[in-house]
């Protein structure tokens, strides 16, 4: 099979692909020219590291490809699902990126629970003159232990979020109509074995009982959490989106934060990426990051091992 490596990659990766038996072609082709170029050159697989190269319109014209490889930590679940719907096999390092996502969820959870997202803004401005006042403002944070974490959708990142939540002493419930139960044993890097056994609940139960919610659906879906869902969350303190841009209705979310019906929210993905709405960026009870949930030094290294393994399986 012939691979177009469109963004360039290391010679080690090229050698590994050729050793497996692939024919590689390293040419930088403009997005508008990709459909005609891949047809003319009989390309079977498009190998990209620039996640912004593709969109739905381009994917519609690439249905002749056997596979697209997203060799990057910056992936779009919407485009991956869309490629699959066009009959194109989507290859990406889901396993390698899931732990990074799960840890980012807890970075936002812990920051929000202890009000660090606002404290980190105010301390540089007023810490030297209003230390005691800031102490009074931020001393009423909460602890995660004993609270209930609800997970909407149960992909691998969701499983790892559940594992970490249980390790912190949280209760975990989840909703996923396609995953009725999970029963897995994880071997942690320190060789400790950790079991996670859970059964899916209704979405209504998760919304009503959870103190915190994190979104992890396997497939792209607009507004997994909408205004009506948020109104059902009588116990909710915080909500996290490290999944994809349109998972949560941000207008309804900002409104609830402004009315102090939520303590905080953590967003790594935004409806209006790459230009998040200013009312979102300026909301003091939002913990914010710029779509870096899957991007760490470790995930950058691990993704290549997984991509090469999946390319071998493709053969």
Pairing-aware structural class of the strands and helices?
alpha/beta
Sheet-strand content, in percent, reads: 15-25%
Order of helices and strands: EHEHEHEHEHHHEHEEEHEHEHEHEH
What overall form do the CA principal axes indicate? globular
Level of helix content?
40-55%
Terminal Cα span: 8 Å
Q: In order across it, which strands form the biggest sheet? A: 7-6-10-11-12-13
Question: Measured on Cα atoms, how large is the radius of gyration?
Answer: 21 Å
- Unreliable residue stretches: none
**Tally of helical runs:** 13
**Strand count, sense and closure of the main sheet?**
6 strands, parallel
Average pLDDT rating: 94
Explain the overall architecture.
By secondary structure, the chain is of the alpha/beta class. 40% of the residues lie in helices and 19% in strands. Helix 5 packs across helix 8. It is globular. The mean pLDDT is 94.
Write a concise keyword list for the protein shown above.
single chain, 13 strands, 13 helices, alpha/beta, 5-stranded parallel beta sheet, 40% helix, 315 residues, 6-stranded parallel beta sheet
Structure in a nutshell:
The chain has 315 residues and is an alpha/beta fold.
